[in-house]
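In this supplementary section we document a worked example of the pipeline. Step one takes a protein sequence of length 255 as its only input; no multiple sequence alignment statistics are reported here. Step two produces a three-dimensional model, which step three serialises into structure tokens for compact storage. The input and output of this example are shown verbatim.
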Amino acid sequence: MALMTTPHPSQNHLLAALPAAEFEPLLAHLERVELAVGDTLYQPGGQLRHAYFPTSAIVSLHYVTASGASAESAGVGNEGVVGISLFMGGDTTSSSAVVQTAGQAYRMASATLQQEFKRAGLFQRLLLRYTQALMTQMAQTTVCTRHHSVEQQLCRWLLLTLDRLPSNQLVMTQELIAHMLGVRREGITEAAGRLQSAGVISYRRGHIAVQDRAGLETRACECYAVVRSELERLLCDVRYRQDGNEAPTDAASSK
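The serialised model returned by step three reads:
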């Protein structure tokens, strides 16, 4: 997809997949919002008033224990939507949604989303397919946390984050990454150190640059490929608008 410098809802892949006849009526119901790192979009048990379609922001979905400990179950970027509970039968959720990477998103009021979903058109099918892909990501995160090393988990997380960004640069502290993965900071420091020594990444003052993506993929476990493949499989037949025209393309690999 062509690189856009002016903010627009079609920078979100789900919205961009809609033909003009279905997309244009939604524009009046989409509000652009700036999201800062640490912003909480919803908390466990709280009522969801909006769905968010990220364009440049990345949102982390967390499950929080009674003691206050938490770990990321999935991330949502320009490939998806935050707030699937709104069209899956509930107005609340047991997880929290916290902004991981600052940027922009477009939000839609819950009543509007539910109304559009009930039309049973392409928008509904896209949302349901994306939900299945998100469920795969959540399940694979559970498996990865239980069976794979911290270094493998870090590689998976970095790759999924890179897929949602326009460059190989991440602004992220090791402490925040440890919080996302639910591991000790020392484990992330050691894993990141090995990746830096191997020339896969460079790290300084909360900035991570991926120098060798192929090397990162080699060191990652199979979980990244499973999540990526499922997203591509479920959304491979969507169509994106480019320069005002309809053009078929791959839903997951396009940026």
